[in-house]
């Protein structure tokens, strides 16, 4: 039972988060246009209807109530067009809906963390109700003359004695449905009108009581007390009507009634039908049925959705684990020692075919995990919008390459770092007033460019602002005061900018709600490093700043170069290797501290000996006996001395056991391991940490 409930909750969270992201995008685009298109209104109505229904099913009442009221608001806008909202009210409308999205996100976070949901939702509900009142007050002027013409209906309604009264004759419309809406839901007349709209998909010939529910708000009280009756000519049409009632919003109970039985069965028998008549169905069904008033747009969006399937990430992890084992086993079979020295043409051909198929299988399983960075990028629109308003600093966000795809786990890992950097760009990067920007010859509206692009095995994400840039002298002075830099030492601009990623470093003189440039950049560096990436900063004072994240596409399977030191095997990622070479002792030069250096292309690079770094007994000491591999990782470029180059191989990355990690081996560049075809284990090196570990150890 528990696992079933968990899967329903997972689906609810996934669906609601997806809908909120969609809603954010619609709101941001609508706010820029300063109006809602008819499609946007229909879509927001549908989203709220779905969130309301699925939240009711999960018994998350705070979410249901707020979604319910916004649904009511957009029902009015949908029926009367956006013109019903005076232009003066539109900023208030946008702010209220953004606030509601934040409320939903906060509540969803509580659900994810197993915390209790909010009880106090009065303030946000009051804001929505106030807007509904203002809109109805301003938009119903044209309808004010209608009550006079409709007075006979209005007067006859309160005088209703029995439900069958509205039917022209029992013989004409003898088959009815008696519907009761949720208690205290409010605006029952509009809910009845929405229900009638939904019924028209099933049947066009029916009558209802009370009549004229759209234009006569006084019918709300009658419906709340006595229910709402719909009458049909035939039993079949009534059965079709019941299908519409089942999927309608806000329906508490319903009951089929016949004209002759209507009086005795009325109202009291309705609650008895409660179990089979629950109106709140799973969100997926509600989503399909919700836009009854907008059937035009439904076919367009539904068709592609049918070809998509949501899969739990843990299942994709299992698939990747199986594929990884297949890659290892295939390697074991084809490089079995039993085959050494044998000429097996058919086997070799079959092994080649098998290798091609395992490569294809691996590519497909990897592609299943790949998702575009657009969802992460789109979230930044909201941050820029909110901060722009709060700081009174006009800015726009430009997105480039948002279709670039990376592994799902990596997308999740970089979302927070990108958010930190965008916030810092807004708060500390862009100038505080437009006059300064104009004086500097810039556009008065600041710009933040968020871009992503592929470069073979990695994705490069850049966050660039056209603000004031970083004052390297101020950063250096601060670093010296904090003891991070030495006063008498020369530092390159790049080295000075790297001080900003030290823990607790900030150039902001006062702490603001959004933090200064630098607060959080150490967190950014740490989070990016956890997904195998690197961060670098470049800046030109007065022109702006660019933060670059280099992220691997995936960390599950990689191409590596196998090398040996003594009897031990190591894997160096192919994308870190520039070249390898045989050299002699005469080619090595020494720095003043007796550190070994190698001259390559008019530059000198430090030489690290793997044997010394890992304190191994075996391995060559004479440089002429081994091989030098020139590597580059992040900001570091150096040469690693090993015994032998064994060849390139596709390897499966296996994490190290946690008890080994407690010894700090990652600090010395051992990031994982892999099982080779002959069953031996190769340690995978993280070349950036190999260098920093070697520097710490003095090798």
Give your account of this protein's structure.
The chain is α+β, with helices and mostly antiparallel strands and 699 residues long. It has 5 domains: 2-139, Four Helix Bundle (Hemerythrin (Met), subunit A), CATH 1.20.120; 154-296, Alpha-Beta Plaits; 313-370, Helix Hairpins (Orthogonal Bundle); 373-552, Histidine kinase-like ATPase, C-terminal domain (Heat Shock Protein 90), CATH 3.30.565.10; 557-697, CheA-289, Domain 4 (OB fold (Dihydrolipoamide Acetyltransferase, E2P)). 45% of the residues lie in helices and 20% in strands. It contains 24 helices and 22 strands. The strands form 5 sheets. The protein has a 6-stranded mixed beta sheet with strand order 14-18-19-17-16-15. Strand 21 (670-675) and strand 22 (681-685) form a beta hairpin. The chain is flat. It starts with a helix and ends with a helix. 35% of the residues are buried. Residues 139-169, 262-306 and 509-519 have low confidence and may be disordered.
Summarize the model shown.
The chain has 699 residues and is an alpha+beta fold.
Q: Quickly name the level 1 CATH class of the largest domain.
A: Alpha Beta
Radius of gyration: 34 Å
**Strand order across the biggest sheet?**
14-18-19-17-16-15
Strand content: 15-25%
The CATH architecture term of the largest domain is 2-Layer Sandwich
Measured between the Cα atoms of the first and last residue, the distance is: 59 Å
Overall pLDDT confidence: 77
Can you tell me the CATH superfamily of the largest domain?
Answer: Histidine kinase-like ATPase, C-terminal domain
Query: What summary fits the major beta sheet?
Result: 6 strands, mixed
- Name the shape in a single word: flat
Poorly predicted regions: 139-169, 262-306, 509-519
Whole-number total of structural domains: 5
Query: Can you give the helix content as a percent range?
Result: 40-55%
